[in-house]
Amino acid sequence: MLKGGISDPRNKALMKMFNMIGIGERAGSGVPDIYSVWESQGWVEPQVIEEYSPDRTILKLSFIATGAMDVTEKSDRKK
């Protein structure tokens, strides 16, 4: 999933709708693009969480700067 190149939509009707209005594509490049943008902005790396029963994939996106996360972790350790 993180490398891209394979498009496996969960909602084929929604994907078809996006394709019909010209804003969808089946390149499978969305997730790698997200990781690239987050890295270029210096934000904490996105987390992919897979759960079963029910099956779901969660992409957790934080707008926290990587350096800010280090400071938060250090202050949490002092408590």
Please explain how this structure is put together.
This protein has helices at residues 12-20, 30-41, 66-78, and strands spanning 47-51, 56-60. The chain has 79 residues and is α+β, with helices and mostly antiparallel strands. The radius of gyration is 17 Å and the shape is extended. It has one domain (12-78). It is built from three helices and two strands, in the order ααββα.
Task: Give the SSE string.
Answer: HHEEH
Number of domains: 1
* Rounded radius of gyration (Å): 17 Å
Helicity, as a percent range: 40-55%
Spatial strand arrangement across the major sheet: 1-2
**Assembly state of the chains shown:** single chain
The overall strand count is 2
What percentage of amino acids are in beta strands? 5-15%
List keywords for this structure.
alpha+beta; extended; two-stranded antiparallel ribbon; 79 residues; 43% helix
Short summary of the structure?
By secondary structure, the protein is of the alpha+beta class.
Please render the helix and strand layout as text.
Elements: H1 12-20, H2 30-41, E1 47-51, E2 56-60, H3 66-78
Antiparallel strand pairs: 1-2
